[in-house]
Write a structure and sequence with these properties.
heterodimer; A: mainly beta; 4-stranded antiparallel beta sheet; 11 strands; globular; B: 111 residues; 5-stranded antiparallel beta sheet
């Protein structure tokens, strides 16, 4: 158990809908990362937050957004969902956000768009 | 741009043999590297890390080697067991960067 908690574990929704994925980082970790993993792609970095503020942005679509709250948990919002958004979404956390800080992953949220 | 890649997408080894999983990286400024293990349906699990001021680091049954000259990273697993079957990812990070993950190598342990 990495200490990173993600909910829901599985989610099935229809195209055009909106979902919210939630992440609680490890105790003491200030930085949260979101990754997308599809069958035909590896781990794609979406976005990083550090202590409530956006730190870095990767290949995140405009239909997607995220935030980190004062209690350090984070949410990833996916809207206008398309079939291609079906993937495993991982949250990870680290103590800080710089190089040398190991990131620990949650078990992921399986999103299926039908 | 920066990239991390793997030489072999799949690797099959006999139980009890040693496994070597390789990884190439392109950003010479990367100074921190991690190997992750991902079992089916689970999140990537930290295995071992190494900083650029080292060329070797050992853990329990695992060793990571870093060759900065040729920008190559490898993970050695001793006495491979069925429970080692998984996809292994290498990841690199440098100052001002985020982790860049390779595509992964699937390790299959044969009985």
């Amino acid at each position: 158990d990495s200490g990173v908690t993600q909910t829901p574990k599985h989610l099935i929704t229809a195209t055009g809908q909106r979902v919210t994925l939630r992440c609680s980082p490890r105790s003491g970790d200030l930085s949260v990362y979101w990754y997308q993993q599809s069958l035909d792609q590896g781990l794609q970095f979406l976005i990083q937050y550090y202590n409530g503020e956006e730190r870095a942005k990767g290949n995140i679509l405009e239909r997607f957004s995220a935030q980190q709250f004062p209690d350090l948990h984070s949410e990833l919002n996916l809207s206008s969902l398309e079939l291609g958004d079906s993937a495993l979404y991982f949250c990870a956390s680290s103590v800080q956000g710089g190089s040398g800080n190991t990131i620990y992953f949650g078990e992921g949220s399986w999103l299926t768009v039908v | 741009g920066e990239s991390v890649g793997l030489h072999l997408p799949t690797l099959s080894v006999q139980e009890g043999d040693n496994s070597i999983i390789n990884c190439a990286y392109s950003n010479s400024a990367s100074d921190y590297f991690i190997w992750y293990k991902q079992e089916s349906g689970k999140g990537p699990q930290f295995i071992i890390d190494i900083r650029s001021n080292m060329d070797k680091r050992q853990g329990q049954r695992v060793t990571v080697l870093l060759n900065k000259t040729v920008k190559h990273l490898s993970l050695q697993i001793a006495a491979t067991q069925p429970g080692d079957s998984a996809v292994y990812f290498c990841a690199e990070m440098g100052y001002g960067q985020n982790f860049v993950f390779g595509p992964g190598t699937r390790l299959s342990v044969l009985p």
